[in-house]
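Q: Here's a chain of 172 amino acids. Please give me its 3D structure as tokens.
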Amino acid sequence: LGYAVAIPSFFLFGVVSISMEWLQAKLSKVKQAFTQLDATTLGYAVAIGVLGGIFPVPGLTTMPCILLAALFRLPSAGHVIVQAVNFSLTVVDLFLIPHFACLGEILVGNGFDNPTCSGNFFANLEGITSEPLQVVLKYSTTFLLAVFAWALVAPFLFFAIAKLTSTLVNKK
């Protein structure tokens, strides 16, 4: 009966009517899932969220998060933490993209004397808001070099963040 009432009220009033017992049951399951996370799993979840959150291709940060979370076999609550950390790092990601691109250029031997490392990186990416796919395709080599640099930094950053997070959680 609760579902039959919820569907018409959603269409009529824009609000889903949910029984309090149902809501409390769902919230207790969520709370139980989060309390079952140990410090190591929480550390992995935060580290994966950070790594995915700074993935240097705009709009694709969720992909490495999902892949790494599946690789480490995180529970459902871990996935929630991963995505929350990922989405909270959007501004940091935009700040780090040119740095990863420049590091990638340096690693392949192009040095600092290239358009990626000198000047305003985002000035070179005209049209990124109007046609993001076209810009990514045009600068695909730059983004691939940025991903290469990210992949070299990622393991060290992962273990440092996972250890720091699990240590902080254990002290609490």
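Q: Can you summarize the key feature?
A: The helical segments are 2-13, 20-35, 39-53, 62-71, 76-88, 90-107, 132-138, 140-171.
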